[in-house]
Structures are given as structure tokens and as C-alpha cells.
Amino acid sequence: MKLYKGLVAATVDALQQIFIKGRQADKVVEQVLKSNKKWGARDRAFIAENTYEIVRWWRLVKYAAAIKKASEESDFWDIVGTWQLIKPTHLHLESDHILPEWPEFENINAESVTERYREGLETRKIAESIPDWIDVTGELELGKKWDIELAALNQQAPLTIRVNSLKSNNADVAALFGEDNCAVVPHVPSAFILKKRQNVLNQEGFKQGFFEVQDAGSQLIALYLDIRPGMSVIDACAGAGGKTLHIAALLQNEGSILAMDIEDNKLTELKRRASRNGVKNLETMLIESDEVISQLSETADRLLLDVPCSGLGVLRRHPDTKWKLKPEFLENIRKVQWHILSTYSNMVKKGGKMVYATCSVLPSESEQQVKRFLKAEKKTWKLVSEHRTSVSKDGFDGFYMALLERK
Predict the structure, then answer these.
(1) With helix as H, strand as E and coil as C, how does the chain read?
(2) Where in the chain is the domain with CATH 3.40.50.150?
(3) 5-129 has which CATH code?
(4) Per-residue pLDDT tens for 378-391?
(5) pLDDT in tens, 304-333
(6) CATH level 3 topology of 158-214
(7) Per DSSP, what are the bridge partners of residue 259?
(8) Which residues have CB under 8 Å from 6's CB, separation 6+?
(9) How far is CA 133 from the centre of its chain?
(10) pTM here?
(11) pLDDT tens digits along 128-186
């Protein structure tokens, strides 16, 4: 495959923004792709795919390039060039891997790259491109399962959509994409996997609110709440509201849904999305203190606590997360999770239910938090069921969900 200098330069620029300036990969890629209107679909695909794959395999590529710390622009050219050499082997592609004779690539020795690449594959943390501390934590908590799950978390995630039943139905949305392009997801009623990758956010059907992009595992969480139309539901860690919108669809615009978050800009985005989705029964509330929570004591039939977490279950979609996470963040977030679970649970009516959910593969953020809660609250709460999705088994992102009932 022929390389074009402008596209490689754009990839180099994106990687510098992600690794030197610490910006979010998806935001960087979005901005870079908008920077040149002359780029066609294949050009954009080259930049996006190479940026994400290098971020995903960052440690292995750096090892193959013999770069300990990338700080200069020349380091990033070496890294992108090295990736072009190892990519066909690593991703099982049929293409040649001869670099053009550009001055930016003159320091790259193909034989040395191949040798170091093979050497790197012999050590799991290099081969699977994961920081030492996450590798240690994963093995400590998951044992032998960590190997399989880690490898699965490094695969590209499928493009999954959720049909918005407030505005459309499965048959009509399948017709938008072509039935041959839509794979039905078993046990997830509104989910389709699109076989052909495409930018669905520019499509008229998306702008009309007929569907949302949402992983099938994520879609299971609102379903797990056991919602019936007419109920009062609180989504207490709503963020930009993917699950809130699903809850609204399950309520069929009957009853009420209160979306809460500590970040106002996320709630503003949620209101915009809700309007597009045809949601009529949504209110939003900014959490400025725990007083807001205590004022809502015993008001909800259903409560969703999709708590902040490490995000280790969604690394397929956000591979830059692993390079930004720090051990102290994990320690702090477990405390935040416990505070939310032990405090916010009071918003549920007696006889009502709540779901505690994370997008982490780690039991310490998930099962263990629920066990601790049930031990402390055994007189008032009981576990109805719990479920975990696995990237390696289901092909869904790694989510944990527990359904609890207030006695």
C-alpha cells in the first residue's frame, strides 16, 4: 500500500496531541479529520485507523522502534514508520511493508524493527501493550482469565447501534442500512451490529433520532433495571446520557426520568440528545452536594448507578485510557464508587430496585463493592441477580451489573 506524506504527517500530529498534550484520542481524531476538506473517505480512514491502532499497540510499537520515551516530532515519525512495517504481520493483512525513502524515515532499520517486534511478543505486557501496574492488577484480580480478556480488549470493537423505539423500529432501521449489513444481537432486542464500518453520525436517520451508537453490553444495563412504563426512574450518574435515552425508550415516554450528574455540560449535551430522540418525560439535575440526594430520599421506583470507574472494560473503544490511568486514580475511584452506592441508594422507595453498574473488568470495582454493600445493608437490601459481559465470550464490552431490591 502506498503511503502519502500528508496523511502520515496528520497521523504524527494526532499522536503528538494525544501523548504529549494528553488530549482525548477521539476528540483529536475528530479535529484532525476536519482540518482538511480535500481528504476523501480512504484518507480519513487511514488517519483514524492508524492513529487508533498505534495508540492501542503503543508500547509494542515503541519497543520495536527502540524508543523509550517519545518526546520529539522525529520520534513520532519513527513510530508511525515502524507501525507500517509491523502492521501487516500484527493485524494479519495482505500488503507489502516497504517504507518510502523519505528523510523522516531514514533512521528506521527494517531488520532491527522486525527483530525487536518478535522479541517484544515474548513478554505479555509488551505484546499486549499495557502498563506494568495494570497488568499486575489484572492478573491479581482475574488470574488466568486476564490473559484471554486482555487479548480481547485489544481487538477493534464492532459498530453497534440501538434502535430508538420512541421514533422508529428494528425493521425500518435495518432498511436504512440494508438488511445484509445488520447483524441481530441475540438477547438484546434493539441492538444491531453493522458489518460495514461507516460514519453513521452524519446520516439522516441519526439526525432524526431513529438510532444511537451504543455497545450491546451497555444496552443490557437499562434492560436489567426491570422498567415498566409509568415508573419514576433516576439515572444518578447520567453523563451525556446513552443509558438515560434507553431508559426513556423503555418507559415509552410515560412516568418520569430524572438524569443527574456532577458536570453541567454533560447534562446540556443530554438534553440536546433527548430532544433529537423524542424524549418527553426527562428532567435533569446538577448534583452540587449530597443534600440534593437526601432531598430525593425514597422517591424512585428504579435507580441506575452507572458509577465512574477505570473504564478497563471499554479499552477496545478508548485505547488511550490505559496510558492515562494511574494507580492512585483506581484507589480514589473505588472510594467514590462506595460513596455513591452507600449514599445514593437511599433515593429508592421501599420495594423499589436499583442497578449498580461499571464498565470495568475488575471485581474490586464491581462484585466486591456490591458484596460490601449487602453486608452493610443486609436488613434493607437484597441481591436479585448480577451479570457480567465479557469481551472474550460475548463480544460485548466488559460491563458488570447488579440488580438489588430494597426490602
Answers:
(1) CCCCHHHHHHHHHHHHHHHCCCCCHHHHHHHHHHCCCCCCHHHHHHHHHHHHHHHHCHHHHHHHHCCCCCCCHHHHHHHHHHHHHHHHHHCCCCCCCCCCCCHHHCCCCHHHHHHHHHHHCCCHHHHCCCCHHHHHHHHHHHCCHHHHHHHHHCCCCCEEEEECCCCCCHHHHHHHHCHHHEEECCCCCCEEEECCCCCHHHCHHHHCCCEEECCHHHHHHHHHCCCCCCCEEEECCCCCCHHHHHHHHHHCCCCEEEEEECCHHHHHHHHHHHHHHCCCCEEEEECCCHHHHHHCCCCEEEEEEECCCCCCCCCCCCCCHHHHCCHHHHHHHHHHHHHHHHHHHHHEEEEEEEEEEECCCCHHHCHHHHHHHHHHCCCCEEEEEEEECCHHHHCCCCCEEEEEEEC
(2) 225-406
(3) 1.10.940.10
(4) 999 999 999 999 99
(5) 999 999 999 999 999 999 999 999 999 999
(6) Alpha-Beta Plaits (3.30.70)
(7) 235, 284
(8) 36
(9) 21
(10) 0.94
(11) 999 999 999 999 999 999 999 999 999 999 999 999 999 999 999 999 999 899 999 99
C-alpha cell at 387: 451479570
- Structurally, what CATH architecture does the domain formed by 225-406 represent? 3-Layer(aba) Sandwich (3.40)
Cell of 301: 421506583
Residues 107, 111, 114, 116, CA torsion sign? negative
